[in-house]
Write a structure and sequence with these properties.
The chain is 28% helix and 25% strand. The protein has four helices and four strands, in the order E-H-E-H-H-H-E-E. Strands 1-2-3-4 form a four-stranded antiparallel β-sheet. The chain is elongated and about 55 Å long. The N terminus is likely disordered.
Length: 148
């Protein structure tokens, strides 16, 4: 059976099809105080965030004007502040708040967020803990922390 290589229609906010255009930010690091262990909340630790935004990039490509695309600078600053100032017990809460912030700040129709706990405090474990979520705009309506 041949592969279907047709280009899907561009999405509108309420449609099921999503834009194929993505803006990807990777390697955003912040020092935060989220974690179940009391030491994590008092001493803190490094987190890393990678995220993708689904949006139509063609208007900006045609115009060359920043206002026709997502200006991600304030979003990056907001995520950094959220990591630095929040004190959640679970990283699941932190990643949901990051997704909510991204969708609210950018107007993107969908986001994928990857949150890495760079050095989790577990005896004998030298790896990382990584969560990844995908959230469409419609799921970002309710904030968990009410402060954002």
């Amino acid at each position: 059976m041949p592969l279907d290589v047709s280009i899907p229609p561009q999405a509108t906010e309420g449609s099921l099809a999503l834009s194929q255009d993505r803006l990807i930010i990777s390697g955003l690091r912040g020092y935060g105080y989220t974690g179940y262990d009391p030491a994590e909340q008092s001493l803190g630790q490094w987190f890393e965030v990678d995220f993708e935004l689904w949006t139509d990039l063609q208007p900006a490509a045609r115009s060359g004007v920043l206002s026709d695309t997502i200006d991600y600078r304030s979003t990056v600053a907001g995520i950094t502040k959220l990591i630095n100032t929040s004190r959640f017990e679970l990283i699941e809460t932190l990643i949901e708040e990051i997704a909510n912030l991204i969708l609210r700040e950018t107007g993107a129709i969908q986001t994928k967020v990857r949150l890495t706990k760079c050095h989790p405090p577990m005896d004998g474990f030298q790896g990382k803990v990584i969560l990844e979520i995908i959230r469409p705009k419609r799921q970002s309506i309710n904030n968990l922390s009410n402060g954002l």
